[in-house]
Structures are given as structure tokens and as C-alpha cells.
Amino acid sequence: MKTTLFTVGPVEMFPGSLELGGRQLPYFRTEEFSSVVLECDASLRRLAAAPEASRSVLLTCSGTGAMEAAVINLLGPGDRALVIKGGSFGERFCEICSDNGIAFDAIELEPGRDLAPGRLEAMDFSAYSALLVNAHETSTGALYDLEGLGALCRSRGILFIVDAISAFLCDTIDMGRMGIDALILSSQKVFALGPGLSMVLLGPRALAKVEGVSPRTHYLSLKRHLHDMDRGQTPFTPAVGIILQLQERLRELERIGAAECVRHTASLAAHFRNAMAGLPFGFFPERPSNALTALQPLGKISAYAVYLELKNKHGLVVTPNGGALKDRVFRVGHMGNLAEADLDRLVTALKEVQT
Ligand SMILES: *Cc1c(COP(=O)(O)O)cnc(C)c1O
User: Fold this and answer.
1) What is the best residue among 93, 138, 185, 292 to mutate for testing ligand 1's pocket, by most ligand atoms within 8 Å of CB?
2) Ligand 1 site, residue 285, Cβ cutoff 6 A
3) Does ligand 1 have an atom closer than 6 angstroms to the CB of 66?
4) What are the DSSP E strand ranges found in the chain?
5) Is 289 in the pocket of ligand 1 (CB under 6 A)?
6) Distance between CA atoms of 181 and 93, rounded to whole angstroms?
7) β-strand pairing of 316-320 with 4-6
8) pLDDT in 10s for each residue of the chain, 355 residues
9) Would the CB of 134 count as within 6 Å of ligand 1?
């Protein structure tokens, strides 16, 4: 049975990436490979509307490695982070802080709930040096108001560190306009590549901060990565194959344009949500990202049973939830090489589910 992934990563890949994945890898300590890396760097910064003096690093690790790199290189012993914790990815930021001995406080939200306007504005920020947020909390489908959060961070003079791994090019991410100081990305979500390559984009304030922090890490030292990135290299063997696939994807994404990528994902999401209206499934988050639709079965069937039935009977792989939401919520991804016709097949299958 042919399967179609409506997952959040890996997702359905594009033919160009698949073709490149079958080729012999080159040796990478060469001028030629450096120029590939520098092209990716410039392209990522353009797509993220990063400020002029910004830089990027390519890390060979899953997205969590890039979250950890950002946290430990941007927060030192005297710093304290404020974390927005609206689901398992917000919780991951908390765990990264606590495992690394970095002081933090968390703003806890009910799963799927938006941050009420004014809740942060009323707080005393004098103890904090950075706000950590997942632009799109992938576990619930909730998208935060990045523009508002960025403005708040600017007015209080703290760093705005954003994990946009599942939001980039699905929802608008504009580092300059939103005042984002560090942006975290990863290969297996919106880039529709294999897992293993992650990126951190650093604006001028974050670059200045990195200089003054001495993290207890060798592999994830951003100073070390930035140094080698000057000449388009990485301190250690990078995910050579994924970088070559990224170069090809980025050329295509730049040809389309960031705004059009967001518009495309938004229109897929709207198409699916319109088709689902009236079926016995509720929409879960208050303020949904375009990247996925999180659904809650309203009848007797559990969310996990819906996932199993779609996968086993139809080869349609939606994303189950874990933990406390396992029986309540499943997610339908709109990232990667998907068209309206794929979502239509999913809707047809969902209509057959005995809820
Ligand atoms: C997928 C994802 C990550 C990274 O998870 P890995 O499994 O480490 O790649 C981090 N943050 C968000 C919001 C994600 O969706």
C-alpha cells in the first residue's frame, strides 16, 4: 500500500531531494563545498528576513540539538530565561535549561490555549535576559503572536529566542520586523529533508551575547561554528548529503518566495479545515498555525484509534499525539510535498471512520 505522510517530520519529500539523496557524496573540505554552505547561509538569512549583520550556523543534530545550542550559548551563569510552555516543545526548553543548570521560569498554558494579551506585559522582566518560545507549539498546533512577543522583548531589553522549526515558511517569520534575535530551524519539517541538519540564525544582539558566554560544550559551541562558518565550513563533519539537498530546496523556495510559501501552506490548511467543517472532529488550538491542523474526535473513538485506522486501512499517516493528549488529539500536517488532492483523500477516509 502506498503511504502518504501527513506528519510533522519527516514529511513527504520533493522529487529533487529524493534524486540528490541517491548520489555519491563529495568530500567536503573543499572550496566547492564551502560555496554550497555559504549559499545556504545567505539564502536562509534572506528567507528569514534576517537583519544585515546576522549570521547562521549549520549543526549536525536534530532540532533539539539546535535548541540546546541556542540556550547554552546565549544564557550564562548570571542569566535567567522566561519560557513559554504550552506543550511538549515548550517543556523541552525547560528541560534543556534545567539539565544545563540555567535558571528559568515558565509561563504555563493549558494545551491549545493562546497566551492572553497582557499576561506578559504585566510581569516584571528585570530578572530575565531572554524569552524562549516555540513559534508554533507543534504538539498542539498553537501559533503564538510573535510580533507582540518581539515588541515586548525589545521594550524590556531582553533577547528573543525563537524555535521556528515547525513554523518557518508556514507562518510568517520575519526576524527583522519581529525583533527575533535567534531563530532555530531544522531539516525534517518545512524543508522536507531527512532529519539530522539544524540551523541557528543569530542577529547582532545574539552575536554579541555569544561572545561573552562560555558554554560547557565542545560540539555545540556556536563560537566555534561561527569561526569556521566565515569560510563556509563546519568544525566537524557536517550532514554533507542533507546540505546538498538543502541547497537545492532553498533555490526552489527562494524562487517561490517566503510570502508565497506561507500563502500556499495557509491555503492548504484552509482547504482542509473547510472540508472538515461539520464532521465530528473539533479544531483543537485557539490560534492555529498553518503548518498543521490538530483535531479532537468529538464522538466515542479515541484520537489514537483514528490514527491507527487511517494508517492501517488507508495508508494515510497522520501524526498521533503522545502523553496526556494521546487519546484526545491527532494532527494533520500540511508541510512538505502535499497537494489539495492528498488532503481530499484524507477527508474521504475520515468520513468513513466510525466515530
Ligand atoms: C520537531 C520540533 C523540534 C525538534 O525535534 P527533533 O526531534 O529534535 O528534531 C523542536 N521544536 C519544535 C517546535 C518542533 O516541531
Assistant:
1) 138
2) no
3) no
4) 4-6, 55-59, 80-85, 103-108, 130-134, 136-137, 142-143, 159-163, 182-186, 198-202, 281-283, 292-297, 316-320, 330-333
5) no
6) 16
7) parallel
8) 899 999 999 999 999 999 999 999 999 999 999 999 999 999 999 999 999 999 999 999 999 999 999 999 999 999 999 999 999 999 999 999 999 999 999 999 999 999 987 899 999 999 999 999 999 999 999 999 999 999 999 999 999 999 999 999 999 999 999 999 999 999 999 999 999 999 999 999 999 999 999 999 999 999 999 999 999 999 999 999 999 999 999 999 999 999 999 999 999 999 999 999 999 999 999 999 999 999 999 999 999 999 999 999 999 999 999 999 999 999 999 999 999 999 999 999 999 999 8
9) yes
For the CA of 136, the nearest atom of ligand 1: 13
- Please list, in sequence order, all residues whose beta carbon lies within 8 angstroms of the beta carbon of residue 136, skipping any fewer than 6 positions away: 142, 143, 144, 164, 166, 167, 170, 171, 289, 291
C-alpha cell of residue 135: 513559534
CA distance 106 to 91: 9
pTM above 0.70, yes or no: yes
Asked if omega into 10 is within 30° of 0 (cis), the reply is yes
Whether residue 116 contacts residue 164, with contact meaning beta carbons closer than 8 Å, is answered with no
